[in-house]
Amino acid sequence: MKGNFVKIGFIGLGIMGAPMAGHLLAAGNQLFVHTRRAVPGSLEGATACAHGMEVAQNADIIFMMVPDTSDVQQVLFGENGVASGLSSGKIVVDMSSISPIETKSFAKAINDLGCGYLDAPVSGGEVGAKAGSLTIMVGGDYPVFEKVKPLFELMGKNITLVGGNGDGQTTKVANQIIVGLNIAAVGEALLFASKAGADPAMVRQALMGGFAASRVLEVHGERMIKRTFDPGFRICLHQKDLNLALQGAKALGLALPQTAGTAQLMQTAAAHGWDQLDHSAVVKSLEVMANHPVSRGE
Fold first, then answer.
1. Which residues, at least 6 apart from 74, have a Cβ–Cβ distance to it below 8 Å?
2. Active-site residue among 172, 195, 226, 284?
3. Is the pLDDT of residue 246 over 70?
4. Is 172 marked active-site?
5. In this structure, are residues 261 and 184 in contact, taking their beta carbons and an 8 Å threshold?
6. Does 1 have pLDDT greater than 50?
7. CA distance 156 to 137
């Protein structure tokens, strides 16, 4: 299926961005890209641009997939940024996971230029990005969403317009709370089982048939047992997302005690130099406290 837009821009070609951009290119769209590294060989046929302004000048719709709020701000409004290359009627789509509050101000600034803006963070990790099966949580105006939806469908399966600008990012923060707490819960459960003398692999297998079954237990539980912590989604990025949750909770007058605890586990991992590992490696923080490993791997 080809997207409605012939000329598409994509900025940020990391673990997630490269395969996402690949799906857009494979559908027959003309793709203009910018990245701090070399353009991956998988994107042969894409046109490399010197900066975001050049991407925006050439593309009708510009996607961004960068690490943090400050990165989005720089890509949009820094020297030779996307905003300086926009003309009325173009659309900017931020698929990064950043601050919902800052997202609203970014959207207003782009709207004031006569352009559309969607915040559309994703869930599904590297596996989902490669498979084109990401969950995409969108904030923005319905007419703009409808124009971009055919392109979202090239990258994801569960695509929801949640509400206005910022609501997509709020949904992603909620997602990261759930995933982070689940990872910590699976880590504690498998650690308990191992310390008690049970085979954590068999415990996981048994739990997969009951109410405790989850995608986190299936995928990250296996990672914990096999010690396969090559990053699908790095601890440092999840740590950033939980910090966004805690910052938002403070502004809203909320207490999020379990989120705070999980954030501390991630901070412990970072202190030990594990923040570039997959977020399932949070179990290593629990293992340090217990002085006992879930498993020594296979």
1. 81
2. 172
3. yes
4. yes
5. yes
6. no
7. 10
Q: Which of 112, 103, 62, 109 shows the shortest CA–CA distance to 82?
A: 62
Sign of CA dihedral 140, 237, 267, 228: positive
Q: 156-163 and 134-139: which strand pairing? A: parallel
C-alpha 218/C-alpha 242 separation (Å) is 22
**Rounded distance, CA 159 to CA 239, Å?**
25
CB-based contacts of 261-265 (< 8 A; 24+ apart in sequence): 261/184, 262/180, 262/181, 262/183, 262/184, 263/180, 263/239, 265/184
* DSSP string across 224-260: HHHT----SSBHHHHHHHHHHHHHHHHHHT---HHHH
Tokens, residue 186: 């699976």
pLDDT digits over 30-87, tens only? 999 999 989 999 999 999 999 999 999 999 999 999 999 999 999 999 999 999 999 9
